[in-house]
Design goal:
It is a single chain. This protein has helices at residues 17-31, 53-61, 84-94, 152-157, 161-182, and strands at 7-11, 37-42, 69-72, 98-108, 115-119, 139-147. By secondary structure, it is an alpha/beta fold. Strands 1-5-6-4-2-3 form a six-stranded mixed beta sheet, sandwiched between helices. It is globular, with a radius of gyration of 15 Å. It starts with 6 loop residues before the first strand and ends with a helix.
Length: 183
């Protein structure tokens, strides 16, 4: 049974954002409780500030022993356009009955800069930079790191690290709190 929301937007500048995201994640995980394991697939590249959100979150989460949770995509081992097909195959082979939560950076409108989105549908990575990559996940989280415009690849290269870190902190804390509450 899917959660009642389709996509929610939360402002990471709001002091309650982490707890709001935690609450929505708990609802999401509880609605998918028939899955034995959770895979968190953090997508992005450590070679671009704006695209580093996923690997930063993976880096933060890999430090914790989370029961029935597998983290893919870190600063040392990122999942990016060049290896995403291979990683999807590996995850499906190693975790055939896992709930997959995909995480990626995204570009958006000015009023949504710094927002976290949570959606109960697959992620389409690379969409913002016009790349054709496979959809992944049962649900996904994005952090809106910069504005969408004509030079999207350049925008990702020139994104402020402080914006990305704020989003990475908010998302990783909410994930940790919600996953610990499942144990």
């Amino acid at each position: 049974m899917r959660p009642t929301f389709s996509t929610i937007y939360l402002d990471s500048k709001d002091s309650f954002c982490t707890f709001q995201l935690q609450s929505h994640l708990e609802e999401l995980f509880n609605n998918y409780s028939s899955y034995k394991n959770i895979v968190i697939m953090c997508i992005g590249s450590d070679r671009s500030t704006g695209d580093s959100l996923g690997p930063l979150i993976g880096y933060k989460l890999q430090k914790y022993s989370l029961k029935h949770v597998n983290i893919y995509g870190t600063l040392d081992n990122p999942i990016h356009a060049g290896n995403i097909n291979e990683k999807i195959s590996e995850i499906r082979r190693l975790h055939p009955n896992a709930f997959i939560l995909a995480i990626d950076a995204s570009l958006g409108q000015k009023e949504h800069l710094g927002f976290v989105t949570l959606s109960n549908c697959p992620l389409r990575p690379g969409l913002g930079v016009k790349k054709e990559l496979p959809s992944v996940g049962h649900a996904h989280i994005t952090g809106i790191v910069n504005l969408s415009g004509g030079m999207d690849s350049l925008l990702l290269q020139t994104t402020k690290l402080s914006n990305v870190m704020k989003l990475a902190d908010t998302i990783s804390k909410a994930l940790l709190y919600s996953l610990y509450s499942l144990s």
